[in-house]
Amino acid sequence: EDTEPDYEDDLTPSPRRKHPGKRGAMNHLHNSFRKYLRDKRLLNSKNGSLPQSPSSQMVQAFNRDNESPPRLDNIAIDWNDSLSYASVIFDEDTMNLDDLRVLCIDKLRRTHQAHRDHSKIEGFANSQERENATCEFASRSSRRQRLDRLNTRRHGTLERRRKIIEQNHHRNPQTWDTIRRIINRLDADGMSGDETETPLGANPKKVRRVALPWISPEITGLLHAVESYAPAIYEENMSVPVGNASLPRLMEAKRTSQNSIAIARLPRNWYDGNWYKVNSSSAKALLGVRKDFEIPFLVR
Fold this sequence. Notes:
It is extended, with a radius of gyration of 32 Å. By secondary structure, the chain is mainly alpha-helical. 45% of the residues lie in helices and 3% in strands. The chain has a domain at 157-287. The termini are far apart. The chain has helices spanning 28-39, 56-65, 97-123, 127-168, 173-186, 217-227, 230-236, 273-277, 281-287; strands at residues 193-196, 207-210, 249-250. Residues 1-29 are annotated as: Disordered.
């Protein structure tokens, strides 16, 4: 028996018609939405002009005093204008309001600082004073960027070692639990930095570890042993590191950091013995050392 097909729940698209024309009853939802857009001047009517964007004077006034922003009935969008960044995909993990707020505050802070520096330079009447101030601000910015890079590498080192612990925990849970406690207590401040070892312009580049003068050789040896497990992670998981390859890192340090501040209230045997002895009694009191904590031996 032939029956009429039921398309009510069919999600397949309707076939194209050879002679398109009006399709039965009007879609009231679409009609109401178009009427709303026309009432708000976001869609031009049949005999009306194209929607116009807010005037430049209105935008400038709002940027100047943050008052009298365009109201909903004043907003108009030119639908004929091409979209910007149309290929950008919204990512809820990285584009949420909290992260965007932090990003905006950080950008505003840097803009504010740059404006203050520029105002100070312009305040000097003498050209030599302006040149000296410009050099000073450039040097300060370079030092700040260098410190930012060092901190980024330290945090990267900390996260890499935490991943190594998680991957190898099953081998010896007790030992790796102890290592986790040590690394978590040291945190990023207890991770050594790096410096470029390769002469300028030479390839491939290498980086060499910059030692922390206050940390004990036993802790340093343990952290080096942890690093030796990194290649095994990829082999065991049959995975290949993605992204740009990290620079080869030479673990043997040629110099120690002059700006490193020792972490207070660590176990006594976590500090370098010679470094601890030369400190004054007041400096030792500020450290507030704790009783020794056993440092496990990890086979490389």
